[in-house]
Specification:
This protein has helices spanning 10-20, 32-39, 57-71, 94-122, 132-136, 146-158, 163-169, and strands at residues 3-6, 25-29, 47-51, 76-79, 83-86, 125-130, 172-177. By secondary structure, it is α/β, with parallel strands linked by helices. It has one domain (3-177): 3-Layer(aba) Sandwich (Rossmann fold), CATH 3.40.50. It starts with a strand and ends with a strand.
Length: 178
């Protein structure tokens, strides 16, 4: 038996910090109430709340369009969405594995690809947030999908960092493990 694990905290704290620095911020997540809670107390003209699923390519491309429509540019892309499945690896269904991969890997790919033209214009930054467990390869018995996604999480934080892109276009790409 497995159950889906979604956490919030780092994304909300990151968004609030950007808002405290007077940045315009797009808040994305599955739970609109959590996004509204994060935005509470900040000027609405600097916030776009957009609830949706980062594993959906069409949604992400639309989110980039809505961001450009409201703010006219993208300076920083923070990839922080992640899910896992609680349970033992042997009991993990393929459906659970594919859901985790679509969010944690495909979602990062779609976001970078969608935002890239705008980041090239602004000479912006990409920040990829990942589980330290995935980077270090430590096994966590109750996080069922980790043995299968460790290589993909490494891909998530390193493969998009094409050195020529960084060197030739001044886009900074950082990876942070929590």
């Amino acid at each position: 038996m497995s159950s889906l694990l979604e956490q919030s905290g780092i994304g909300a704290a990151t968004a609030r910090r950007f808002l405290e620095e007077s940045a315009a911020v797009v808040l994305n997540g599955c739970r609109k109430s959590k996004l509204e809670e994060t935005a509470n107390g900040f000027a609405g003209d600097r916030i776009l709340i957009d609830s949706g699923d980062v594993s959906d390519k069409k949604y992400i491309l639309g989110l980039v369009e809505r961001t450009i429509d409201k703010f006219h540019h993208i300076d920083v892309l923070v990839n922080n969405a992640a899910i896992s499945v609680l349970g033992l690896f042997g009991g993990t269904s393929e459906e659970d594995l594919h859901r985790v991969m679509k969010t944690n890997v495909d979602g990062v790919f779609y976001a970078i690809r969608g935002a890239l033209p705008h980041l090239l214009q602004s000479k912006g930054s990409i920040v990829n947030v990942s589980f330290v467990t995935a980077i270090l390869g430590r096994m966590t018995p109750r996080l069922a999908c980790f043995p299968a996604i460790i290589p993909a999480c490494s891909l998530e934080t390193h493969a998009p960092c094409d050195c020529h892109l960084v060197a030739n276009h001044s886009i900074r790409i950082n990876s942070y493990s929590n």
